Structure formats: structure tokens, C-alpha cells
Amino acid sequence: MTVQAALVSAVLVPAVAEGGLWVRHPLTTVVNLLVSAGAIGAGALLAGDAEQRFTGYVLIASGVTRPLEWADEWASGPGPLYAQVFEYLPIALTAWALLRYPAVSLGRHRRRFMVVLAVWVFALPAAEACVARPAWVGIPDATPATWWPNVWADRRVYDVLDYTLVVGCALLAVGFLVFMLRGLRVGGRRDRTVRLPVAAAGILVAVASGAAVVITALAGRHEEVFALEGMAELGVPIAFLVSFAQRRLTRLSSLMTVFDTAYPTTHVLRELLRHNLRDPGLDLLVWSEADRAYLTVDGETADVEASSRDRHTIPVHGRGDRLLALLVVDADMAGDGEVAGAAVAISKLALENLMLSRRLLTADYDARQLIVADLHDGAQKDLCALRVALSKIEHAEPDQVPALVETADRLVAGALRELRDLAHGVYPHTLTHAGLAAAIEETADCLGLIVHLTTPEHRLPATVEKTVYFFVGEALTNAHKHAGTIHVQVAVRQSGGVIVAEVTDDGVGGADGEGPGLARLRDRIEAYGGRLQVRSPHGAGTHVVARIPCV
Fold this sequence. Notes:
This protein is of the alpha+beta class. It is built from 21 helices and nine strands. The protein has helices spanning about 1-15, 20-25, 25-45, 55-65, 80-85, 90-100, 110-130, 155-185, 190-220, 225-235, 235-255, 265-275, 305, 330-335, 335-375, 380-395, 400-425, 430-435, 435-445, 460-485, 520-525, and strands at about 285-290, 295, 310-315, 325-330, 450-455, 485-495, 500-505, 530-535, 540-550. It has a five-stranded mixed β-sheet with strand order 5-6-7-9-8, covered by helices on one side. Helix 3 (about 25-45) packs parallel to helix 11 (about 235-255).
């Protein structure tokens, strides 16, 4: 409502305050209107950013007060006195905003400069009003109803003060130019890119305002001069809008590269989001399916209500609308759709990658445990029995030796078969020597499935071929266990830079594409950079498609 009221004021105040200027010099009036509206609009935009809120308010104030420079168009009342004392108020407010941006506060030297500027452009005009008559300051039609101090009229003192004011304004303009130029040398390339439009506008305004003060002092008031000064000042709100857009792009770019140099743990994710979003109170609450609760990045159960008090929560959902986490952010960031959306997207990507890495690590541990169990229950058992049989041969009667040798031979053959089957499950020898088609057919024969197979005639890259084989092997195993059919179609083809592998059965269907049964299969494909799709309507079979990049 404040911004809307200010915008309305930017239209109505010039119409009232600038009075006869509308008729005498409409160009100046229109320029004033544009500068006021532009400053208020740019200020409203900056006020939505927590870091630049005060700068935004200062710009809004400069836009609202600019038309009041022409309050002396009304000879009666306080208008002439206000115009005399506060003529430079919009320029001072604009200078404050330019010197402060994009920092969160004025530096020591800039703060001192603003104090000197304020004293100079307010105290000296006020002193002039005390020693001048209205006609001397450009109000020839003053009336007894005109508010004026009339303390001590002295033309010589007035001329000295006016000359001092002009010289001081020229020097202050030079000092302002120095600050603007020095600001371009601070920070990295991105910081300088953000400062450049505002600094360029500040330099232009300093030159135009200084020239207008000097020309007015030497040649009197001319609306054409003020129109040209206003056109230069119109570049300030435009520059702030351009710079604000660049800051947003820089912030979004920083978010997109947030994990270039860091391992994406939840703690690092939270700290990097805090730094890039400039929200030190941002928190990341990760959903734990096992605990059925939100956890902090330190592993403690989170109090969502306490964490989100006076702040906003943004849910982060993963694949299948599965809840991953809550982002607890400042209200300003929550209202910024683009930045909040980028933060959610980055958090989703990081958390899903982190969970994928953990699932793959767990799957690796499980695979090792299965190998150990297979060795213990298979080959190790036969080898232990073989050792017992060989110890019996040493003390056996001659007629018992052939039977014991036959038993030992059977145990050796069984151990070799167990080891061969185990090795085949870990990595098929046929895949290396005969290719993908032969390895798939061998797996299908072991499972007792009838497979209609289509594969490329040429050999695929070795790592891709292994990934495709394990995908097809796992899909065939699932079909053997759950589909209730022995007929399966397998099609492997190359489409551009992607290998598409499809496994289709005519079984009972109903497979859960997001369930744990297909989790290992999905993780293997996604770890290679591919994508897995599962379609399994009840009673209509299961269709599994993997798209795997060739490199």
C-alpha cells in the first residue's frame, strides 16, 4: 500500500506542485514525472531485497520529493521557502542511494562525505533564505502571504553565500565522481559488473547536476537546463533496474555452480545456500523415512514449529513427489519465486545425488555380503568336505580308496561349479569374449526363460555394454521371480548418443516402479547418467526401459 500510495503521489504531486510549469515548460514537467515514477518504481523493487531495503526506501523518498523542488511556483504559502531550503533534497537522497549500493551500509569515508553534502546543500540555502528577499532567489511575485523568514536582508552577504554554495557544489560533484570511479575497482569481476550501470549513472548525474548549479548561478534559472538535468537523472532508476537484474542473475548463477568445489553433504548444502542467498538464518531440515521425522543437518530431531517461527518453510520434493526436506528461509526470499525455485531445485538435486550415493554404497556392502554368504554356503562347504575325504584316504583300507577318491572328485567338481557360478554372477566371461547377445542368452537359459532378443550387430563401448548387461540381467531375474511367465522380449538399440534397452514380459504386471525391488536397478542406471522408466499395469505385463548415454 505504501508503494502504491507513492506511485499515485508521483503522478499527482507534480500536477499540483509544479503549477504553471505545466503551461510554461511542459517538457520539464514530463521529465520530472518520469524521474519521480522511475525512482519510486526502482525503489519499490529494491525494497523487496532484504539487503537493499533501505536503499529502496531512499530512492522512493527521492522520487516523492523531486516534484517539490518546484513548490515555488506557488507564490503564497510555504512553497517558496520549501523550494529554497530543500531544493537539493532529491539530489542528496539519490547520491546517498548511489553511494550505498550494493553494500548494506555506507562506508566511513562515504558517510562523512554525505554529512558534508547534507550540511552544505541544506544549511547554506537556509542561511540564504535568512539574508535574502524572495525576489533575489527567483520569486519576483512574492506576496505578504508568502512564508519567508525576513531576518536580515543583505544583498552582499547573500551573494557571498550563493557563490560559496555554487563552488562547494562543484567540489562535492568532483568528490562524488571520485567515489563512483573508485567503486568500479572494488571486488571481483561479477561485483564490478553489478556496480557498473549504477556507477555510470552516478557519474552522469554528478556532471549534469554540477553543470546545472553552475549555469543557474551564472545565467539564472532556465527550464531547459533543468529538463536536461532531469533527463540525465532518468538514467539512475534505469541503472538500478539493470543492476538489480544482474544481481539476480549472479545469485542464480552462484546457486547453479554451488557444488563445483565442495562435496555435497547436507551440512555443506545448508552453508552454501546461506552464503549464496545471503540468509544466515536459513535452515535445512531433512526428512528421514526411517525415523518418520525431520532431522537437522547435525542428525538431531528437528522442531519444525520452532524452526519456522517468524520464517517461511518451502518443501523440497524428489521423484514421485517424495518429500526430501524443508527449507526454512527468510520471508523476502520465500516471496522471490525465481531465487526460491532455484534454491529448491539445487537442494533437490543435491539431496537426490547424496541419497543415490548412499544407496549405491549400501548396495556395494550388500553385494559383498552376498558373495561372502555364497562362498560360505557353497564352495567352502565342499572344500571342507574334500579335506575330510582326503584325510580318510590316508588311513583307509585299500578297497575303500576308490570310493573315497570318487567322493573327493565329486566334491572338487562341485566346488569348481560353485566358484564358476559365483564368478558368472559377478561378471560373465561370455560378455567379454562373445558379446552382449550371447551373454543375455546365457543368462536367460540359466533362468529358464524364452527370450526374443534384438541387439546391435556392433560391439558397444565396454562400460556401456556392462551396464546394459547388468540391467537386462536384473530385469530378467525380476521377470523370472515375479512375472509368472517365461516369455520375455529384449530389445537393445542405439539412438544417437544414447543406448535404449527395453525388457518386456507378458506377466501379471503390478510392479512398483518406485519400490525397493527396482531401487538397485534404478541406482545403477542413474549412477551411469542414464534414466529408467517402468510401466507395469496390473494384468498387462511389465515394460522396463533404460536410456544410457554412450559416453
